[in-house]
Amino acid sequence: MAVQKRFIAGAICPRCAAMDRIRAWEQNGVRYRDCVNCDFFEQLPIENDAQPELETRVNRDREEQRQQDFQPVRILDPKGR
Ligand SMILES: [Zn+2]
Known about the structure:
- This protein is an alpha+beta fold.
- The protein has one domain (6-76): N-terminal domain of TfIIb, CATH 2.20.25.
- Helices cover 31% and strands 23% of the residues.
- It is built from 1 helix and 4 strands.
- The longest helix has 25 residues, at 52-76.
- The termini are far apart.
- The model has no long low-confidence stretch (mean pLDDT 79).
- The site of zinc ion has 9 residues, from loops.
C-alpha cells in the first residue's frame, strides 16, 4: 500500500519555523504530518472529516488574536480568582 506524502504549500513548521517543509499523509484513518527540516512529527485521528481544514488555519489566527486580547484583561482583572 503506497502512501502518498504531500508537501503543504505555505505551511510553517511549529518547531523550526521552516516554510514548505511540512509533509502530510494519511494512513489507516490517521493523518500524519512531519517536517523534513527537523524532528517535528504529529498524528491526528481522522474522525470527523467535516472539520479538520477549518480548524488549522482559522483557529490559529483566532488564537493569536485572543492571546493579544487576553493579556490586558488578565492585568485588569485580578479579582477573577
Ligand atoms: Zn521543522
